[in-house]
Design brief:
- 2 copies of one chain form a homodimer.
- In chain A, the strands form 3 sheets. In chain A, strands 5-6-2-7-1-8-9 form a 7-stranded mixed sheet, with helices on both faces. In chain A, strands 3-4 form a two-stranded antiparallel sheet.
- Chain A is built from 7 helices and 11 strands.
- In chain A, a hairpin with a 2-residue loop joins strand 3 and strand 4.
- By secondary structure, chain A is α/β, with parallel strands linked by helices.
- The interface between A and B is large, with 49 and 49 residues.
């Protein structure tokens, strides 16, 4: 997208597959999908890492139930391990209520550190929980790392679908294949009468997928 | 926060009050609150503008039901008017599925244009629908514009509250008073049995507000 940044994408030593989990909009359950994907793959016997790339609102530590501080080891950072998944998140390095006030270029650097200076070891899958949207961090990551595929999470609401289309477009532009779309919050079963409630009107994710741009637009 | 950027905050000519609507996390209903706040104030007879500052996922046009393209007029851009509210959004200038691939410094410039090169005219309130989180655009806006007060939107979920605390901290740091916190999606009434469902467990927003840091931390 920015010609000066079309460097050859570099693989991460020891990591077989980089899978990005993205969304156009926040609050659609991207982190929930990332965490469940990581733990499920670990339970299937795969070696899995989970990189929380949402530096402004890192929710992976809370969802994984850890506040452990990662330790340095021979100029590399050791990820935290929980439920068989190796985790790295800005929420572990900068816990508490103080927001990170870093701007674009600093974010770019921290992501490169998270990818390359963390002691991930041998991994079958490194799941990257992208920040919402198509901003600086997402762009840097998808442009500079050799991502095997992307999962796009949406809800059936019109605003979420509007933004999910932008995320799909971004991945197509950088030639990252879309492995799948997850329609989250499709419905809710009432805990009282057990009837199904279509909170955001059901099926939008499927309609969107049918309309997604072809691989070579 | 960045000392080099502590310039004197400049008022916008003709605009009496700048009100920022922010959230730590996306998908909590920030745009819904902004749109309702703007239309409600307009119905009370106030002169109101609504600036959609979420350049990556601008949902104001969809929610306000307009796709009209703003026109230039004497080197200034004329906002679109709908429901008595003057609107400006990147979604009006860059419609469709193509994401904006601008980075930090360009975003900073577009926000200054949105504030100062748009023909807002005389306004009692200019509501700014901030992007989610405490990233580049939010920081630039709260540091450079004379904001009268901020509204922080959250849901009762732990992850939303975790991120809302960061937004509150950001506003305190730049001495923008918090006018109020809105707990959105507190509960849902089942359309079948009309029982109330606490989807994200109720009352977290109120508990959070009670714990918010004092005005001079």
């Amino acid at each position: 997208m920015h010609p000066q940044q079309e460097l050859p994408k570099a693989p991460i030593a020891g990591v077989k597959h980089l899978v990005a989990v993205g969304s156009g909009k926040g609050g659609v359950g991207k982190t929930t999908v990332s965490v469940n994907l990581a733990i499920s793959l670990a339970r299937l016997g795969r070696k899995v890492g989970l990189l929380d790339a949402d530096v402004y609102g890192p929710n992976v530590p809370l969802m994984m139930g850890t506040r452990e501080t990662p330790m340095g080891h021979a100029e590399r950072i050791r990820p935290i391990e929980k439920y068989g998944v190796k985790i790295m998140s800005m929420g572990l390095l900068n816990p508490g209520d103080k927001p990170l006030v870093w701007r674009g270029p600093m974010l770019h650097n921290v992501m490169q550190q998270f990818l390359r200076a963390v002691d991930w070891g041998e991994l079958d899958y490194l799941i990257i929980d992208l920040p919402p949207g198509t901003g600086d961090v997402s762009l840097s990551l998808v442009q500079n790392a050799l991502i095997s595929g992307a999962v796009v999470v949406t809800t059936p609401s019109d605003v979420s679908l509007e933004d999910a289309r932008k995320a799909v477009y971004m991945f197509h532009q950088v030639k990252v294949p879309i492995i799948g779309m997850v329609e989250n919050m499709s419905f809710l079963n009432c805990p009282h009468c057990h009837e199904r409630i279509d909170v955001f009107s059901h099926g939008g994710g499927r309609r969107k997928q049918a309309r997604r741009p072809s691989a070579s637009p």
